[in-house]
Inverse folding.
């Protein structure tokens, strides 16, 4: 896949609302600020994964642009440059009540390949930000389609978040036996529930994995997002920017570099 392109491909999964897009965007920003070429592909029908890399602006989605432009679609219509040169793409979703959001992800991936996105931008790392309430059809595409090499799951100590994390981990294990993506670990995005560290550590152990990073709850995240930015961009000298920088180190370590 992607002839001539040597790239780390990582999927970030998590229950809706757990903070996976915030985490992914700050990861992208931290790595891009170091000079790496980063591409972030939002795989959530809400199409807001890359908003804080784009100054608070939601970009046109692949599916919307396909519907509008058809065979005349160009790469420039669906790939946009954000903070520190990040390449931002949103798969988008079907018309509400019609069609399958998972199928939309597959269509978006196929179109990016057809238009030569990876060859043109030559990313060092690609992040797929994927809704993890369900792991079926197109939502599993980053795991089973040969796209992602590693999967990280964002979770808190809340029951439903841990339940979703366990389901995602099980899916990754099943696909991993066939040579697809492997689970890199859990990212604990704190909600300050009782015994949260122990709960998440136990969940990681039960799925044969580990907690690779703990992200504390901090007002800096909301302050940055109110400006339409990541913490890394808005508050580069803050302790939270350091947290995301260390997370970036761990992700690169697990991904093999």
């Amino acid at each position: 896949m992607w002839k001539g392109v040597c790239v780390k491909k990582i999927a970030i999964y998590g229950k809706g609302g757990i903070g996976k897009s915030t985490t992914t965007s700050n990861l992208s920003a931290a790595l891009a600020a170091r000079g790496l070429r980063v591409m972030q592909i939002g795989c959530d029908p809400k199409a807001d994964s890359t908003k804080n890399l784009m100054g608070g602006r939601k970009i046109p989605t692949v599916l919307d642009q396909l519907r509008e432009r058809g065979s005349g679609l160009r790469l420039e219509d669906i790939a946009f440059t954000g903070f520190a040169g990040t390449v931002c793409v949103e798969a988008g979703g079907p018309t509400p009540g019609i069609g399958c959001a998972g199928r939309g992800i597959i269509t978006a991936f196929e179109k990016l390949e057809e238009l030569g996105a990876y060859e043109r931008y030559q990313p060092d790392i690609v992040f797929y930000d994927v809704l993890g309430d369900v792991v079926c059809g197109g939502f599993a595409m980053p795991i089973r389609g040969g796209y992602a090499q590693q999967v990280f799951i964002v979770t808190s100590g809340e029951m439903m978040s841990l339940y979703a994390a366990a389901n995602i981990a099980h899916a990754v294990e099943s696909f991993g036996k066939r040579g697809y993506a492997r689970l890199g670990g859990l990212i604990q995005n704190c909600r300050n529930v009782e015994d949260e560290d122990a709960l998440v550590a136990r969940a990681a152990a039960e799925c044969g994995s580990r907690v690779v990073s703990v992200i504390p709850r901090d007002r800096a995240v909301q302050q940055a997002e109110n400006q339409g930015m990541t913490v890394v961009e808005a508050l580069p000298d803050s302790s939270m920017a350091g947290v995301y920088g260390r997370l970036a180190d761990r992700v690169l370590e697990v991904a093999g570099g």
Remarks:
- The CA atoms of residues 9 and 148 lie 5 Å apart.
- Residues 1-5 have pLDDT under 50 and may be disordered.
